[in-house]
Amino acid sequence: MLKASRLTHQKKQPLAAAAAIVGAVICAGVASAQQSSPTLKAKVPQLYQERLQNASPEIRAKIEALEQRALREKWRFWPTYTAAFDHPMSELGGALPGPSKAIAAAQQASARQALQRYYGEKRRLGIHSTIACNSRFESFDWRSKHKLSEIQKQDPCASCWAFAAASAFEGSYLIENNQLVDASEQRLVNCVPNDCKTGGYLWKALDYLVSTGTDLENDDPYVGKHRHCTPTSAQMRRLVTYSMIDTDWTKVVAPAKIKSALCEHGPIAVRLISTAAFRSLSGEQVFHQVDSGLTVDSDNDDLGIGGHFLNIIGWDDTLGAHGAWLVRNSWGKAWGNGGYGWIEYGANLIGHQATWVHAAHDKVGVGRGPKASSTLPTRRTAGVPRARWCATTAR
Q1: Would you say 236 and 214 are in contact if contact means Cβ atoms under 8 Å apart?
Q2: What does the alpha-carbon distance between residue 113 and residue 127 come to, in Å, rounded to a whole number?
């Protein structure tokens, strides 16, 4: 009995030692995460710290849950209370699906022809453009060239598609004319088929900007709900053309292609899947994907997940794991860094339905007033089924 007791004790010793080692590793990991949290928290601007201090118990609970995830999953950014948490995802997104491949291919061909004619007319008139961007740059930011308008706020309407379209138009117009215009998103909400509760189509908004154009914000200010579509005027500003970079709207476009389009045309409209983590981004932190299983159809309003359009305005290859996009959002200045934010290449499927637009130089004469007739195929008769929002179940 004594011998057996000694053997049992000897077996327990290595097991106890192993358990102690495992426990030490776990404790070290927790301590490391706890030590890293002050560093991450320090990157949260004072504005957001004050917002959280004054937040309701419900909001504080949501943010605390995200903070626990950040510690547990070792996020490289610290979540906080941004203005995006003041609204449900149904009021923050609104990104309905893109066109069929056939329609996208036809638009690509039309865009190439339109650009050739436009560039030819610019040469004939002696108008020369200086491109301040090179896709081979390690980093680039259209803000540094003063080619962007003020950050806007889309709520309480699911009109991200209108803001992304208008923002791309404003950037391209400023690049072409060196003149800032504040395009009316309300004109698009009024005149392009959409629903403030479920969203709208980016490509239909861009069709409208090509064929009809938009007036200025002062003429038709944003009210966040659908109103009557008023008659057009001679002062309407139009796009020359637009095109998706890839004909498959569900495909995340390679960074090199987006950079090239960004340099030639200006801010790019893109789609991503917004999540609660993305909504919590603040300051100069770089967002990286923390939610698995996202698809272009992912949607859950209760979890704050849904399709969203915004604009890529720059990049930095030294940020994040393999580089990051600088994005311009339509959630006001109390998100990210004054309405701008960094997001790793490909995170949350950013870059699918990437679309460039090209505004006209005023002297060329194709950018003012409604078009007499459109040469683009009519989407309503092109065999496109009645589209549904990305809020439907995944494919």
Answers
A1: yes
A2: 19
Spatial separation of the C-alpha atoms in residues 5 and 328, rounded to whole Å: 70
Global pTM reads: 0.85
What sections of the chain are H helices per DSSP?
A: 2-41, 46-53, 57-73, 101-124, 160-177, 185-191, 202-211, 255-265, 276-279
Cα-Cα end-to-end distance for the chain: 66
- Token digits of residue 183: 């395009």
User: Residue 173's pLDDT is what?
Assistant: 94
Q: Is the Cβ–Cβ distance between 182 and 216 less than 8 Å?
A: yes
Find all residues with CB under 8 Å of 237, minimum gap 6, and list them: 169, 173, 181, 183, 213, 214, 215, 359, 367, 368
pLDDT tens readout for residues 175-198: 999 999 999 999 999 999 999 989
Lowest mean pLDDT segment, chosen from 197-206, 313-322, 368-377: 368-377
Asked if residues 298 and 305 have their Cβ atoms less than 8 Å apart, the reply is yes
The pLDDT value recorded for residue 171 is 95
Compute, in degrees rounded to 10, the torsion defined by CA atoms 268, 252, 317, 41.
90
User: Across the chain, what does the average pLDDT equal?
Assistant: 86
Q: Check residue 19 and give its pLDDT.
A: 44
- Bridge-based pairing of strands 286-287 and 340-344 is parallel
Q: Residue 379: its pLDDT value, please?
A: 36
Q: What is the mean pLDDT of residues 110-126?
A: 96
Residue 370 predicted with pLDDT over 60: no
Topology of domain 101-381 in CATH is Cathepsin B; Chain A (3.90.70)
Length of the chain: 395
| 348: number of Cβ within 10 Å | 25
Question: Over the stretch 218-246, which tens digit does the pLDDT of each residue have?
Answer: 999 999 999 999 888 777 899 999 999 99
What are the start and end residues of each CATH 3.90.70.10 domain in the chain?
Answer: 101-381
Question: For residue 264, with 0-12 CB atoms within 10 Å meaning exposed, 13-18 middle and 19 or more buried, which class applies?
Answer: middle
Using CA atoms, how far apart are residues 192 and 202, in angstroms rounded to an integer?
10
Number of other residues whose CB lies within 10 A of the CB of residue 375: 10
53 token code pair: 């201090």
* Cα 139 to Cα 314: distance, rounded to the nearest angstrom: 7
